[in-house]
Amino acid sequence: MSLAAELKSAVTPRAALLVIGVFALQLLFITSYVGALHDPKPRDVPFGVVAPPQVSARLVGQLEALPGGPLDPRTVTDEAEARQQILNRELDGALVVRPAGTTDTLLVASGGGTVLSSALDTLFTRLEGADQRTIRTVDVAPASPEDFDGLSAFYLVVGWCVGGYICAAILAISSGARPANPERAVIRLGVLAVYAILGGLGGAVIVGPILGALPGSVAALWGLGALVVFAVGAATLALQSVFGIVGIGLAILLIVVAGNPSAGGAFPLPMLPPFWNAIGPALPPGAGTWVARSIAYFKGNDVTGSLLVLSAWAVVGSAVTLVMSSLRRAPQPTAGEPGAATT
After folding, report:
1. Per residue in 285-315, pLDDT tens?
2. Taking a C-beta distance cutoff of 8 angstroms, is the pair 200, 229 a contact?
3. Distance between CA atoms of residues 242 and 323, nearest Å
4. Full-prediction pTM beyond 0.85?
5. How many C-alpha atoms does 285 have within 13 Å on its Cβ side?
6. Secondary structure string (H, E, C) spanning 229-288
7. pLDDT, tens digit, 9 for 90 and up, residues 174-209
8. Sign, Cα dihedral of 133, 136, 137, 138
9. How far apart are CA 243 and CA 304, in angstroms?
10. Which of 168, 169, 173, 170 is nearest to 189 (CA)?
11. Do residues 46 and 92 make contact, with C-beta atoms less than 8 angstroms apart?
């Protein structure tokens, strides 16, 4: 057999297309991660200003005019309200100005990402120094000492996402990417649900009681984990039911290539470029990371929107899987046709 014939036999057109797809996925992976993370800087950070009326308007204007637009400042009534808005995740920081002295207070929340709180501290140390003032930084929602750079919530969610799409991929590889009938689809979704419950519990116990990496309710993290795993797995099953084995690659594209760098894990959302900042909250890694940090450090505040995002992925993924499986049901033979039942 000639080399050309051997090559044609060894690499089928379908395999060649899959290899090309993997190559494109590789380039997109590099583009997404480097594009999102190579130059982190604060952009439009929701920020509060507590100061007397004659000072606050001028200060807000000065902060709005900073080069690069690092802050999105707004006036806050008093320090107590600023602290509450930070805990509600409406603000990422606040400056409390004390005109009677030379020291102002910067409120931050490293539980939402230590990189952002450090960036705010550096920014205001420079700004206050230029006005011959000093800054005292107070961490309203501090990250756990066992949670380096506030990354544990992100890695926990990444692990849940990996489990979700790998479980769905295994179910496809073992017996066909597309369920043969609705009953098979229901079985796959049922197996995925059991796996999600166990995976959610395992992750919550590991980061909580075993490693002590994240504070917060183990039960709440368990529920979140089950939802994240099922949402990602259901989305993967849906993509497989529509596109076949290529659906696994599309799931990786959505969750790993687009979702992970935009999740606000390594760098919180206000430090990401606009595109990644925009898509992150709508994808499972970003929604899951936001809720995990809220559970751990912000008393469970501001989780409704992200939970709805995860629920939408779960519901739509399940619905598409069931609808596509029903469309694949083989037609029953009619009387007189081969295979028809005889009486």
Report:
1. 999 999 999 999 999 999 999 999 999 999 9
2. yes
3. 10
4. yes
5. 32
6. HHHHHHHHHHHHHHHCCHHHHHHHHHHHHHHCCCCCCCCCHHHCCHHHHHHHHHCHHHHH
7. 766 566 678 888 999 999 999 999 999 999 999 999
8. negative
9. 32
10. 168
11. yes
